[in-house]
Amino acid sequence: MTQARAIQLTEFGSPDVMKLVTLDLPAPAAGEVQLRQTAIGFNYIDIYQRSGKYPLPTPTGLGHEAAGVVQAVGDGVTDLKVGDHVVYMNAGLGAYADCRNVPAAKMVKIPAGISDDDAAAVFFKAMTAQYLVKKTHKVATGDVVLVHAAAGGVGLILVRWAKALGAKVIGTAGSAAKCALAVSEGADACIDYTQSDWVAQVQAAMGSQKAHVVYDSVAQHTFMASLDLAAPFGMVVLYGAASGPAPAIEPELLNKKGCLFLTRPSVFPHNADPATFRANAADVFAAMGSGAIKATIGARFSLADLPAAHRAAESRATTGAIVITP
Ligand SMILES: NC(=O)c1ccc[n+]([C@@H]2O[C@H](COP(=O)([O-])OP(=O)(O)OC[C@H]3O[C@@H](n4cnc5c(N)ncnc54)[C@H](OP(=O)(O)O)[C@@H]3O)[C@@H](O)[C@H]2O)c1
């Protein structure tokens, strides 16, 4: 029996509800792989789940993605072998651990030339950006794209990918330094949305145009402005709620704002089908390989320091991705 160190929660609330415990880990079952995890990706959804905003049964693990090295394979696993470097997402909660059994179907091999750290920093966030720019709205040359929280994990990847697809990209972020980072990663302009006139500044940056698509993961602080900044027949994509839930609106408002389309998508259903998951993952790694997107690691923490990682993310002190090292 292998022993694993893992985060467990028996209640929800502040970051201190995350307790590091030692568990017995059985051999991998049929179809599973046992992974010695080398890098764990933090995602903002971890905060919604830890705090109880997205309710879960207890006790529960936490964390959606990690990279690592295969150290045992269960019966029936033919496409992975001991020593392979892999990354996974959407395999059930429990990525906050140093060792774990994961269904092989949820894993992909990390291509040569990409480190485990970079894979864990990017995978969940880039799989999110992938469906946002390729499916929810197919970003095309000449599009005007507005990305809120543009200096965050998903935000920086969206900026780079939309630029690579030929769009004009306007970002928003919570400080001048964060805006400078988004611009250095390719945004044509980035507006500090803590300033009282930020909406007018975004409109000025877009010139006579409005946004063909608005990627809004901030919600409460930004949502009504997103409706105003979208072009007629434009797409408003509400894909997170970092500042709190968006206000409820009447469907008729979408007509008044210009026959807008509004959607609230999630990465999980977009990757539920195994073949689609693999094709999307291949697209992500191809985009990394071509340099269209890259890992931007803003901070690193240990498993024992996870409460500090959550505090840093919640207080908006981070940029890019946070990687947890077991
Ligand atoms: N639907 C999906 O498929 C899906 C998948 C993955 C992630 N997401 C969502 O995408 C967003 C980005 O995820 P991420 O992991 O890359 O996180 P992140 O962007 O690195 O962190 C969230 C950012 O939200 C901004 N923010 C604005 N108001 C905030 C507030 N009141 N409190 C805290 N943060 C605030 C902060 O940036 P500023 O300081 O610049 O404002 C913060 O850095 C999250 O909302 C997440 O839930 C959705």
Tell me what you see in this structure.
The protein is of the alpha/beta class and 326 residues long. It folds into two domains: 2-122 and 285-325, Medium-chain alcohol dehydrogenases, catalytic domain (Quinone Oxidoreductase, Chain A, domain 1); 141-264, NAD(P)-binding Rossmann-like Domain (Rossmann fold, 3-Layer(aba) Sandwich). Helix content is 31%, strand content 27%. It is built from ten helices and 15 strands. The strands form three sheets. Strands 3, 4, 5, 6, 7, 14 and 15 form a seven-stranded mixed β-sheet that branches. A six-stranded parallel β-sheet has the order 10-9-8-11-12-13, sandwiched between helices. Helix 2 (116-136) packs across helix 3 (153-164) and helix 2 (116-136) crosses helix 9 (274-290). The longest helix has 21 residues, at 116-136. NADP nicotinamide-adenine-dinucleotide phosphate (NAP) binds at residues 43-45, 125, 128, 149, 151-155, 173-174, 178, 217-218, 221, 239-240, 242-243, 265-267, 313-314, 316, 318. The site of NADP nicotinamide-adenine-dinucleotide phosphate (NAP) has 28 residues, from helix 1, helix 2, helix 3 and helix 10.
